[in-house]
Amino acid sequence: MNFTESAFLVFFVLTWFVSVILKNHPSVREWFLVGCSLFVIASWGLYDCSIFLVITGLNYCAVKFLCKGVPNKSKILLSAVILFNVLCLIFFKYRTFLGLNEKLFTSNPSIFSVGIPLAISFYTFHLISLMIDLYSGRINNISLRAYCFYLSFFPHVIAGPIIRAKQLLPQIGRVFSPYHGLAKGLHYFITGFFLKVVLADNIGIGIDDLWNSPSELSGGDRWLLAFLFYCQIYGDFAGYSLMAIGMARLLGYRFPANFRGPMAALTLRHFWQRWHITLSQFLRDYLYIPLGGNRLSKSWALCAVMGTMLIAGLWHGPSWSFVVWGGIHGLGIIAERIIKKPVFRYAKVNSLVSLLLTQLFVTVSWVFFRISNVDEALHFAKRMFAMDFSKSFFMKPYLLGLLIFAIPIIIHNLVPFAIRKIKRSYIPGILGTFTGMMLLANICILTKKTVFIYFKF
Amino acid sequence: MRKYNQLFWISFGVSSLVVSTILHAIWNHKLKNFPKRPELINFRTQYLGDDENYSVTHILYRYGLFGTDKTINSADLILVGTSHLEFGICAKQLEDTLSKEYGRELRVFNLGMGGGESTDFVKTILSSKKVENKVIIIDLHDPLGDSWSYLANATNNLNSFQAYIKIYNSWFDYFRDWCFDPIFPRFRPFMEIKNVSSISDINKKVFAYRRFLGYFSVREWSSGDIVSYFGPTSGELTKIKNAVPLSAFAKCLDGENQGVRVNHRLEEFLLASSNIVVTTLVPWDGYALVNKPIDATNFIFLPPENLWTYDRLHLVDSSRSLNTKRLAAELVKKQVLKDKSNQK
């Protein structure tokens, strides 16, 4: 079930009503939500649900042992469990990419030609986070209900946000107060739906085919196409994240924000603090810092940045283009660390130039994210810079038409900054007004239903 | 927090109301140009068969959901074919005529499917059911041959659980569209955006609108017959007054004038389970130009005279009735069902 489908919306409303009925029975309510979550996972395929149950089931044995907290043995167990989860991820997601099919199944490589299990990248990270938090003592104990709930809770299980165990577990077992999160939950959900269905999907329908035949595009078209993809993926993923945050809030749980105006980022470092925030924080805390972070030499820190960014790229999918995408960002961040000095005398000019350079850099990098073949992506990127003035700057006027859907996305990126300048007492009124307008737009604007881009990661 | 919520809900309600009123005022003026909204489907006896996104019929027949399996298994006579047969023969009428003729209750089921569905997909459906000792009438119009339609491929990739979800999606979408149809217009930017040829065009194309209800067909649970086929701008398509007489010799579409063939694999499968196979060809524009296979089993010719079509491919209700009457007469003449009784 896709979050934007009618059947899911009806399912969610029913789930919410039952949750309200069970509000004074947290234990029953949370088991009920676990059941609902398994239903959602199974709706994507029984294979996906089975893999999820097997992996989480095996991890639960380790959880019980870690809870007992025998210091020496725990460290070995923690390493073994992390290794097991990473190997599962490698086997299911990167098997073909690493040529393991041919090595493991020499007689018939296609014998294990099953697809990538849904959400495996996300729940593997959830499991790793849980194990480390248990080992380090940030969490003392975890019941079976809390464990199942944390891993399977349907708003986040498929495509995040990546919630840390320490963020969600303290909220489990509380009495549910339905009215408390209703306004904000509804606002987040409707905004997310608007970003995804009305904006991102309409942009996607306009540009998706163009990526298959870019030879007809002028340099201007290519820039516009890359920028529109930037808007599409933002609308798609930020929309999904907001819907997840909204659903969780409506059911009485708080999720951390996953996006905070990345299109207004002045540097790449800022960009990664605002784009897929929960992934960035996960990689920072569980990869970059354990690798040494800023504590060791400067050159080692730069290597750690590069390693982290390459893994961030590879995490998105078994393709070299994702590795290149991560690598480009890694190089950009390293360059930023080396060139620290402002170029211009005036701070505002510096900020403006920095904003433009960062956003142009990010826009070009999306080409490698979108085109799975590195050579083709490189060719596309080269043609962005090779302007042919004999041709019209824009060969495809309808791309300009799509800016109608891109402009609200740009505005949405500015909201976190604009909201600081608005008097606090005006905020609920403004949010309510926009939520009402977006609700009507969600109803009245027809789009073809498409699956969220991040569901395949 | 309470004040926050109050302010939020008041502004939410006011803005929703204001925008709704504006949209409704615009729509109310335009709605007069569209045909009347049909009655809500009575889901106890009927179901939404196909809409613009899904073919519920394909899913229902493939997985035998909501008792469809039982209905098909209990039928004495099954009609197999594409949308030509779906719209061209009435199972209920055939059932009544034949039951009267033979003096016993006979059950007829219409297994016709849209999308020009291949009889090869029908074979997949029938192999999962108890199809024994029945009369199967196959419409030879089979434009896809051994390859399945995209609807069939999409259907076959599901499991029964996902099949239920797809069906409910389609039905909930219909219910939403039926409710909002008289209230709001529906903007459809994606349908028009690629037709923007100049910047001045953008405004017209992006805000192009239509009504909520799109094309959809309604079928009967008990017989599988099409009860209605609704078009957003033309209303009930099979009942429209501007239907045209069928022209057997006027070429319609290139593809439609080919694709008549006998699926021997289906026939062999059916004959192996003691079924009686009868073939026919429901008329459409230009069907006299096609080469009918000489090896068709028990072929029944259905004349095109006095038949009317709404889109040159499918018959209107009155012609369906006439066509069914002719088929029933031929079946009685050929004594096909008598053979079946003897087999029993």
Task: Give the overall shape of chain A.
Answer: globular
Instruction: Please give the radius of gyration of chain B in angstroms.
Output: 23 Å
Give the total of beta strands of chain B.
13
Distance separating the two termini of chain B: 76 Å
Task: Give an account of the 3D structure.
The complex is a heterodimer of chains A (about 450) and B (about 350). Chain A has about 450 residues and is mainly alpha-helical. Helix content of chain A is about 70%, strand content about 0%. In chain B, helix 2 (about 55-65) packs antiparallel against helix 8 and helix 5 (about 90-100) runs parallel beside helix 12. Chain B is α/β, with parallel strands linked by helices. In chain B, the strands form four sheets. Chain B has a five-stranded parallel sheet with strand order 3-2-4-11-12. In chain B, strands 1-7-8-9 form a four-stranded antiparallel sheet. Chains A and B meet through helix 1, helix 10, helix 18 and helix 20 of A and helix 1, helix 8, strand 5, helix 9 and helix 10 of B.
